[in-house]
Amino acid sequence: MKNIAIPVLKIDGNFEIISWNTSAEDFLKVTFKKSPGAQLNLKEILPSGIWSEFQYNFEANGGVFHNIFTFSKTKNLEIFSSPCLDDGGNIKNYSLSIKVVSSRDTTSSENIIQLKNILENSSLAIFLTDPSGPIIGVNKAACRMFGYSAKEMTGLHREHIMQKNINLDNAVEHRNKAGELRSELIGVRKSGETFPCEVHSVIYTNNEGEKRTSTTIIDISERKKQELIAENNKQAFQSLFEYNPDAVYSFDLQGNFLSLNESAARLGETSREKLMEMSFLPLIPKDDQVRVMEYFAKATLGEVQRYQTNFIGLKGTRKVLDVTNFPIYVNKKIVGVYGIAKNITQQVSMEQKLLEDRNMFRAIIDYIPDHIFVVNEKHETILTNHSFYKNYLGVEDEQKSLGLTAAEFLDKEEANEILEDNTRVMDSGTPVLNREKIIHNFNGEKQYTLLTKVPFSFGDNKKGLVGISRNISEIKEKEKSLEELNQALKEHADELSLSNKELEQFAYIASHDLQEPLIMITSFLAQLKKKYEHELDEKAQQYIYFANDGAIRMRQIILDLLEYSRVGRIPHKVTAINLEHLVAEVLLLQKRSITEKNAGIEIGTLPELKVEEPLLKQLFSNLIENALKYSSKERTPEINISSLEKEKHWEFEIRDNGIGIEEEFREQIFIIFQRLHQRSEYKGTGIGLAICKKIVDNFGGDIWVDSTFGKGSSFYFTIPKQF
Questions:
Q1: What residue ranges define each of the domains in the chain, with the CATH number in brackets?
Q2: Where is the PAS domain (predicted)?
C-alpha cells in the first residue's frame, strides 16, 4: 500500500480508519490537518457537508461508489469506495481513494485512467451495462467470478449470468422504477454452475446523456453456507431445548425466568406462561434456599455450578433435582444464567433403598454364625463377615482381613489345597455344596465344617467365589452320641421285638389252648343241666347258668385276644378293594341287628384302595357294630358312612346319633379292656376299639373320635394313599 501514490484508507463498517498508506497520511495532514491514529473516525476528518453526502452515498450503494464532492470554490474532493472481501467472499472492510482536484480537472483523462485502474483491480465484481440488459464492460473480478474472459462477457445479456426467474424479473422492474436495486439473486457461471450472489445495481446518466447501469456482484456462497449451518445449529439447539426430557431454562441476573422448555413447565407443575412471571426461588424449600442462591450467585460470576437440591412443584409435589447452571455471555458480558435440571427423585430413592438393602444385607451376614467370605481370582478376600474375621482369622475388624490369601493364615499344605480347590471352582463354574471338611482356625484348633463355594463373575468378567463355612463340630459330637444311642436303642428294639414276638406267640397259643378247657367246661355244664335238670332246684339251675355264662364270656375274651394278637402279625395280601362293596358285605353280616333296631344306614361315595382286605373289613365291622350297640333308646339309630380325599391320605367317618361319649373318656376307649358301661347294660369285652386302633396303626394312619354326650359320636380314621 505504501508504494501507491494515490492516498488510500481502509475503514470498517462503522467508518473507523483501520489502516492507511503513506500518501494517505501525508494527504490527511496537509488537507485536513489530521494525523491518522487509533480509533480515528472518517466523520472526524471530512467536513460536515461532505460527510453527510458521503455517508448517504456509502450506505445507499453498499460501500461501492465514485463521487465528486465540492470542497471549495476551486477545489473538489474525489472519493472512490470499494469493498474488500475475505477468502470466503464476505466483505471484510472498505478501501477509499481520496484526492483533491481542481474543478476543471475533475474529468481529466488522468482521473479517468486512475478510476479505471481502481475499478479494474477491485476485488468486487463490477459490471457496466445498458439498462436493457447487454453488458458493456466488466472488471477482472467479474471475469473470475463467472468464468468468462472480458471479451466473452462483452455483449452478453444479464440473463446469461443471472438465473431467469420471477425474482430476477421483479428485481429489474424495481430497479427500473426506483433507479437502484439491492437484492439476492442466483448467478450462473460459464460452466452452468449456479451460486447465490448479492447484487447492487444503480442506473445513472453519463456525460453524453446515455442511461447506463453500474452493478456490483458479491458471491455469497460461503455466507449462505454459514447461514445454513447457523440455521441448522439454531434448529438443532431449539430441538434440543424444546424436546429435551430434562428441564432447560434461563434466568436473568435476578433469577427471573427468561425462557424454559415444556419439561421445565411439567416439573414446575404449571404452564410456561405462569413460570415466566416468577423467579425460581419459591420452587425451592425454605431450608435450602440460601445454599441454592449461593450456587446461583457463583454462576452469575462466571462459574459453572452443579449441585443437587430439593424442589417443590406448584401443586406441592416434592422432587430431587440434579442441577447444572452456567453463565450466559453476550459480547463478553454475563447477562444471565442457563440451567439444566434432571429429576433424580426415583434414582435417589433407589440409591437410598440400595443403601438400606446393603446395610440390611451387611447386618444379616454379620450376625449369621457361619463363616462367610468372598475372594477374587487372585484368591484375595474382598468381603468377610464378623464370624469369619473374628472367629476364624482372629482379627478385630473386616479391614484387617481384606486382601489376605489362604497362604497368609494357614499352613502351606492346607493353604495350597484350598487355593487349588478355589481355582477349580472358579474355572469350572461348578459350585461345591455342603462338603464336609476339617479345617484349622487361627489358634490351630481343628473344626469340622460344612463347606459351600459358589463361583460368580463381577466387573469386566472377573472371576470370584463366595464361600460359606459352617462349624459342625458340635453337631458331629452329637451325631457320635446319637449313633451310640441309636445302636443301644437298636439292640433294645431287637430285644423288644423278640420279646413281642414271644408274647404274641404266647398270647396266640394261650388263647388257642385256653379254648379247649372252656369248651369242655361248657360241654359238661350242658350235660349236667340236661341230665339233672329235673332234680336240681332253682338255685342250682342259677349256678349252672352263671358258670355257663362266665365260660362263654371267657371264651369271647379269648377269641378277641386271639384276634388282637393276630393284627399285624399274620400277613395278608394287599389287593385293590372297592370299599362300597366291602361295606355292603359288612352290613349284610349286621343285618339282624340293623333290622331289630330299624337302623337307618347312609353310605356316601367311597374310594377304591389297595389294602389288606380282612383287616379293613374287621375295622368297618367293629365300628359299625359299635354304632349299633351304643344306640340311644330314645331315637331310631342313624348311621352315616363317608370319606374325604386329602393330599396324602383318605379320611373316613362313621357317624351315629347314639348315646355319645363324655370328653374325658375319648382317649381311654381305644385302650384294651377299657369299658365305660356295666356288662348288664352293654355286652362286650372292651377289646373291639383297641383292635380298630391296632389295625389303623398297622396301616400307618390315625384314629380318633369326636362326640357329644347324649347326641352321638363320629369315629374318624385315616389310611395313607401310598399304603
A1: 8-106 (3.30.450.20), 112-225 (3.30.450.20), 244-349 (3.30.450.20), 350-473 (3.30.450.20), 567-720 (3.30.565.10)
A2: 111-155, 233-303
Condensed to tens digits (0 to 9), the pLDDT of residues 233-282 reads 878 778 777 888 899 998 999 989 988 988 888 999 989 899 888 888 89
560 confidence band (pLDDT: 50, 70, 90): low
Question: What does the chain come to in residues?
Answer: 723
> Do residues 464 and 375 make contact, with C-beta atoms less than 8 angstroms apart?
yes
* Ramachandran assignment for 269, one of left (phi > 0), alpha (psi -120 to 50 degrees), beta (any other): left
519 phi/psi in degrees, rounded to 5: -60, -40
Question: How many CB atoms are closer than 10 A to CB 480?
Answer: 10
| pLDDT per position as a tens digit, 198-235 | 888 888 776 667 788 888 888 888 888 888 888 888 78
How far, in Å, CA of 366 to CA of 553, rounded? 73
- 521: helix, coil or strand? helix
All residues at 6 or more sequence positions from 169 whose CB lies less than 8 Å from its CB, including other chains:
none
Q: Which of 68, 78, 67, 63 has the alpha carbon at shortest distance from 11?
A: 63
Of 168, 194, 195, nearest in space to 183 by CA: 168
* Distance separating alpha carbons of residues 634 and 466, to the nearest angstrom: 76
Q: What pTM value is reported for the model?
A: 0.39
Task: Please list the helix, strand and coil fractions of the chain in percent, rounded to the nearest 5, in that order.
Answer: 45, 30, 25
Rounded distance between C-alpha atoms, residue 285 and residue 309, angstroms:
9
Separation of alpha carbons 519 and 618, rounded Å: 25
d(CA 100, CA 75): 7
Whether residue 583 contacts residue 603, with contact meaning beta carbons closer than 8 Å, is answered with yes
Residue for cell digits 434466568?
Answer: 251
Q: Residue 127 in contact with residue 142, Cβ under 8 Å?
A: yes
